[in-house]
Design goal:
heterotrimer, A alpha/beta (244), B mainly alpha (290), C mainly alpha (314), B: 290 residues, mainly alpha, two-stranded antiparallel sheet, 75% helix, C: 314 residues, 15 helices, 2 strands, 76% helix, globular
Chain lengths: 244, 290, 314
């Protein structure tokens, strides 16, 4: 049985008087394909922000590989091996697709390459682009991409940080069925390489197919946890999504 | 020589000054606090209002406050025009941070220098029947040239507060930066709402400028002192909170009045900057922040 | 090989400047040229924080004047030599940059910009109240007599400023092509994404602010010897804030070349214009040109050139 990679303990986050996350607990195991679902506004992205370090949490701890990373700034967590994509893609507009990948390769990856030289960054970037299927667009300015290409760039860029844990935040929203399958294939391939993946999605068929375990959030609290099958038949989940 | 009377007078003067500062800061509270448009040129629009009041006063003998009120619709249109350019050139493209700031900076000193070229560097002032008069309440002397701007400032604050809280467009302006989707569903175009909001912000500059020249003589570059003040007030008072703006204005007014009396007038400027820095460091959301 | 060419060019420029002084010529040209090269330093310095990192500094005058007044203090106290003045001016201004950055860079970029706006006013107030450096009246500094083989001290200052301009441009060029520069560009493009991609954004921003402030202070350090009468009104002149911002914006903000082009073009135009038009009108024109460029040609002259002549490597 693989060890616990990410351990979220009683994490709470408040915005003024509003509690976005209320003592959320979850554990993700190494190599796992983990799903995180919940209605809009349930706190999924807030949770991800607290894990990645984009937001400080108000209570609880976050442990990564057994180490307490609570309070560490995001860039240090990335260097430790946590990478994330953004719901609304945030490419670096003044750079080409390839150059976008060079940033995490130069800043995040070396920390865990244990002394590997900084040359051949471009070659590594091309490798990742090939894996994702964007190699033809390597020298295109990143703002010139279409929807699905942007999403792939988000994934590729997160990959370039050489993460142990990759968090994909609604990478498939608004995509066609074929495009969803494309991204899904990418994620499966990444997981095959040993990367633990947390997928946040609204597209149920994707989450159900992809995840080994799923956690459901509603109004900042965990209301269910289990295999896709268990979640599908959980009355609390149904209630959260459909109301009574 | 320290006396309680002196302290009381200084504090009262500070409160009155604060009421006036509120009038100047309302525009920033609107445009920066609510609409997220960093219009650093706002103080210079206020100065523009001062000169309008001066011109009307010296040519036609018009009371400055009257001029301020009369010119308000003109300033509103000016604000609408400026926002349209700002939106089309920057906000739409998502480049409002660097380029938008530079735009307003350029606008700021274009207006300042234009005023300089038109009116020269000399201080200008207005003549009105109530300047130079003062009331006495016990041991406190209240100069009318401070009292009148304070009262008008309070009126403006109350008016804006009611507008934002009670009217459809007002509430739309308050909500536009937070939830433009909800606005759209209500049938309101967020861009139109922002245009109205920004126009309103510049409109306040007309009357605020009239009040400024009542308080004291004006020359083109004094807008620069006010930049620190209005942003300190907006940050301290909580971005977009009208009530907070008033409270913060009074705090700043009193602090400056005390500093000016006991340390010398030239240090008053440093007060706002210090308050701004402290405010940013300690409570970026301000006293009443959202 | 790639590094040798720019360095050689830079040295070449300094040598040409030296030779020019041997040729003589109207001393006024040296006064004017000094100002232009001073703006090359200021514009380049501004751009490291503004164009490369995306943080707008409205208070260039504060850093420049701090460099100048540091020099004044050192001249009065120790009669320190010029290299010491330059280094000290740079260090003090760099420290100011670090301080302002530390206080405001954890917040949104606009707060940094607002703080710099207010900073110049506050610093000027402090200097005006400081009798040691002459307060509002200013102070007279004795310009040394001619030095080495130069005819006048101003010609020496001119060459020094050319050297400083070359050094700043070299720093900007190196930064642009380095991994630090790429990190700064990522911050400018999307700070949140940069932070999540492993870029230590706060540290890099503080670095940029410090380097930028340092170079501005360096530009200000020779100022006392240049003007001989140092007064707050001229040291904190609005021109410095406007020009150090307008020159890169007009020249082009993404490369080291833009500020140089902007400084040379705009600086020369202003030096020519001061003879014919008032300085206020001059400022007005700069303002209008700046706003026009920001709206219509945001990539500046370098951007326009790229569009006309296709890709160009720098």
């Amino acid at each position: 049985m693989a060890g616990t990679l990410l351990d979220v303990q009683n994490v709470t986050k408040r915005f003024g008087g509003f509690t976005a996350l209320n003592e959320v607990n979850l554990q993700v195991h190494e190599g796992e394909r983990f799903g995180l679902i919940g209605p809009n506004g349930s706190g999924k992205t807030t949770l991800i922000n607290c894990v990645s370090g984009s937001l400080p949490n108000d209570g609880g701890r976050v442990l990564f590989q057994g180490r307490d990373i609570t309070g560490l700034p995001a860039h240090q967590r990335t260097r430790l091996g946590i990478a994330r994509t953004f719901q609304i893609p945030k490419p670096f507009p003044s750079m080409t697709v390839l150059q976008n990948l060079c940033i995490p390769l130069e800043y995040a990856a070396p920390a865990r390459s244990h002394g590997a030289p900084r040359d051949d960054v471009a070659a590594e970037a091309m490798e990742i682009l090939r894996l994702i299927g964007l190699q033809a667009k390597a020298d295109v300015p990143s703002i010139g991409l279409n929807q699905i290409e942007m999403r792939k760039l988000e994934l590729a860029r997160a990959m370039a940080a050489k993460p142990r844990l990759l968090i994909s935040d609604e990478a498939m929203a608004g995509l066609s069925s074929a495009e969803v399958d494309d991204i899904l294939a990418n994620l499966f391939a990444l997981n095959e390489r040993g990367i633990t993946i947390i997928m946040i999605e609204h597209i149920m068929r994707a989450v159900m197919r992809f995840s080994e375990r799923i956690i459901v959030l509603d109004a900042g609290e965990k209301i269910a946890e289990g295999t896709p099958d268990q979640i599908l038949h959980n009355p609390a989940v149904e209630k959260a999504y459909l109301g009574e | 020589m320290f006396s309680f009377d002196l302290l009381l007078n200084v504090v009262v003067a500070g409160v009155l000054l604060g009421g006036f500062y509120a009038a100047v800061s309302l525009g920033i509270s609107l445009s920066f606090g609510l609409l997220d448009v960093v219009n650093i040129a706002h103080p210079v629009f206020v100065i523009l209002g001062s000169y309008a009041a001066y011109a009307a006063n010296s040519s036609f003998g018009l009371d400055p406050i009257l001029t301020g009120v009369l010119f308000t619709p003109l300033f509103y249109l000016l604000g609408v025009a400026v926002y349209r350019v700002y939106y089309a050139s920057f906000e739409k493209k998502g480049e409002e941070s660097l380029r938008g700031l530079v735009f307003f900076f350029g606008l700021m000193f274009i207006i300042e220098v234009a005023l300089l070229l038109t009116f020269g560097v000399d201080y200008r002032l207005v003549e009105a029947s109530y300047i130079g008069e003062s009331l006495r309440i016990g041991s406190i002397g209240i100069a009318l040239r401070l009292l009148v701007p304070c009262l008008v400032g309070l009126l403006m604050t109350a008016g804006l507060y009611l507008f934002l809280g009670k009217t459809f467009y007002g509430k739309a302006v308050m909500g536009v930066s937070q939830d433009s989707l909800a606005l759209r569903l209500m049938g309101a175009d967020p861009i139109r709402i922002k245009t109205i909001g920004f126009g309103l912000a510049i409109a306040t500059a007309s009357l605020a400028g009239a009040l400024l020249i009542l308080i004291g003589p004006v020359e083109p570059s004094i807008g620069r002192e006010y930049i620190g003040r209005v942003f300190a007030i907006t940050v301290l008072g909580g971005m977009g909170s009208i009530g907070g703006t008033l409270v913060a204005s009074i705090i700043l007014g009193v602090a400056e009045s005390l500093m000016s009396t006991f340390s010398g007038p030239s240090w008053a400027v440093a007060v706002s900057f210090s308050i701004l820095l402290v405010g940013l460091a300690v409570r970026p959301a301000g006293l009443f922040g959202r | 090989m790639k590094r040798a060419v720019p360095l050689a060019t830079g040295l070449g420029v300094v040598v040409v400047a030296l030779l020019l002084t041997r040729l003589g010529g109207n001393p006024y040209y040296y006064f004017a040229a000094y100002v232009i090269f001073q703006y090359v330093v200021l514009a380049t310095a501004w751009n490291i924080l503004g164009g490369y990192t995306g943080y707008v500094n409205f208070g260039s005058a504060a850093f420049f004047a701090l460099g100048a007044y540091t020099a004044v203090v050192l001249i009065l106290q120790f009669k320190a030599p010029l290299p010491v003045l330059i280094l000290a001016g740079g260090l003090v201004a760099g420290f100011l940059g670090l301080g302002i950055g530390y206080l405001t860079l954890r917040l949104r970029g606009v707060f940094f910009s607002i703080a710099t706006l207010a900073l110049a006013v506050v610093l000027q107030t402090m200097v005006v109240n400081w009798e040691y450096v002459g307060g509002a009246r200013g102070i007279n500094v004795v310009r040394p007599a001619a030095i080495l083989w130069f005819r006048t001290y101003v010609e020496f200052l001119f060459v020094v400023m050319v050297l400083l301009a070359v050094v700043s441009a070299t720093v900007a060029w190196w930064l642009q092509h380095s991994w630090i520069g790429r990190g700064l560009a990522a911050i400018r493009d999307n700070e949140e994404a940069a932070e999540c991609m492993g870029v230590p954004t706060l540290r890099l921003k503080l670095f940029a602010t410090t380097v930028s402030g340092f170079l501005m202070g360096v530009a200000g350090a020779p100022f006392p010897y240049y003007v001989t009468l140092v007064e707050p009104a001229s040291a904190f002149d609005l021109n410095y804030a406007v020009n150090s911002l307008a020159m890169p914006m007009i020249g082009g903000t993404t490369t080291w070349v833009g500020p140089v082009i902007g400084a040379v073009l705009l600086g020369t135009a202003q030096q020519v214009a001061t003879v014919t038009i008032s300085s206020a009108l001059n400022l007005l024109i700069v303002g209008v040109v700046l706003v026009a460029f920001v709206i219509l040609a945001p990539q500046g002259i370098v951007g326009l050139a790229r569009k006309v002549w296709g890709g160009r490597a720098t």
